[in-house]
């Protein structure tokens, strides 16, 4: 097995188990402890795992930890591409839209094909994507840059979105729970996201299925504040429960 293939399988194993130790991984992948330590060092340097005594923890298991942009981009990439393509198809020519920061909303922006569009965002990567499109009028919020996720945040950012009215907000999230609602790993982004929700006639949440049935640090909003959810897969029971709360659930297959 090639090193990159082994590291990918190790990462999948850790994310599934939440945490793992050196001995466990050495046995599971039939390689030496030295090799496992080297693999874990490289995964940790990329921000894909968090090193703890004797092993590592999945970054997905830290509910108040901002996941670095590089890690988000590598997680569930195929699902995010499908979600992005479906979500972009819901935008109409002439729309004014908000793109929340995140790897899934970035995929929405990559699929823009409308003839005329106004885009508002606080995400630097989305801004760079939109800057190359002649059919898009781009407006970027002010704020302080969070370098690990290429996101602008703070009072200037919140004020920017409080002063606008748009057709659609495409919102990302860190977790969805039927009782706790939508939640976010850090408090810093919550007020910005709330302003994005209030600014829109329609709120479309884009997220992959790994965020379902989870709670993280900060409550963002009740599920009923979301109009549509675009997701890669969801079981029928969970889908019905969301629909009872007024959310239209669309599966990007």
UniProtKB/TrEMBL annotation:
Q: Which SMART domains match?
A: DeoRC (SM01134), HTH_DEOR (SM00420)
Alphabetical UniProt keywords? DNA-binding, Transcription, Transcription regulation
- Keyword Metal-binding present in the record's keywords: the answer is no
Q: Which GO terms describe its molecular function?
A: DNA binding; DNA-binding transcription factor activity
Keyword Transmembrane helix assigned: no
Domain HTH deoR-type stretches: 3-58
The record's listing under InterPro entries reads:
Carb_Metab_HTH_regulators (IPR050313), DeoR-like_C (IPR014036), DeoR_HTH (IPR001034), NagB/RpiA_transferase-like (IPR037171), Tscrpt_reg_HTH_DeoR_CS (IPR018356), WH-like_DNA-bd_sf (IPR036388), WH_DNA-bd_sf (IPR036390)
Q: Looking at the record's lineage, which domain of life comes first?
A: Bacteria
- Protein name according to UniProt: Glucitol operon repressor
Organism equals: Paenibacillus beijingensis
């Amino acid at each position: 097995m090639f090193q990159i293939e082994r590291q990918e399988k190790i990462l999948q194993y850790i994310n599934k188990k939440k945490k793992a130790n050196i001995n466990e991984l050495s046995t599971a992948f039939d390689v030496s402890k030295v090799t496992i330590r080297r693999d874990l060092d490289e995964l940790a340097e990329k921000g894909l795992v968090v090193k703890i005594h004797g092993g590592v923890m999945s970054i997905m298991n830290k509910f108040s930890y901002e996941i670095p942009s590089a890690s988000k981009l590598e997680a569930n990439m195929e699902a995010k591409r499908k979600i992005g393509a479906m979500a972009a198809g819901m935008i109409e020519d002439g729309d004014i839209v908000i793109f929340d920061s995140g790897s899934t909303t970035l995929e929405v922006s990559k699929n823009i094909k409308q003839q005329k569009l106004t885009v508002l965002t606080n995400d630097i990567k989305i801004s760079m994507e939109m800057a190359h499109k002649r059919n898009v009028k781009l407006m970027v919020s002010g704020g302080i840059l969070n370098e690990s996720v290429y996101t602008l945040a703070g009072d200037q950012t919140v004020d920017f979105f409080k002063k606008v009215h748009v057709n659609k907000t495409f919102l990302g999230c860190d977790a969805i729970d039927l009782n706790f609602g939508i939640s976010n790993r850090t408090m810093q982004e919550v007020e910005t996201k709330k302003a994005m929700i209030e600014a829109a006639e329609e709120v479309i949440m884009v997220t992959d299925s790994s965020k379902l049935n989870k709670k993280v640090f900060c409550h963002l909003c009740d599920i009923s504040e979301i109009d549509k959810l675009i997701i890669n897969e969801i079981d029928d029971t969970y889908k019905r429960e969301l629909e009872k709360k007024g959310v239209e659930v669309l599966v990007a297959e």
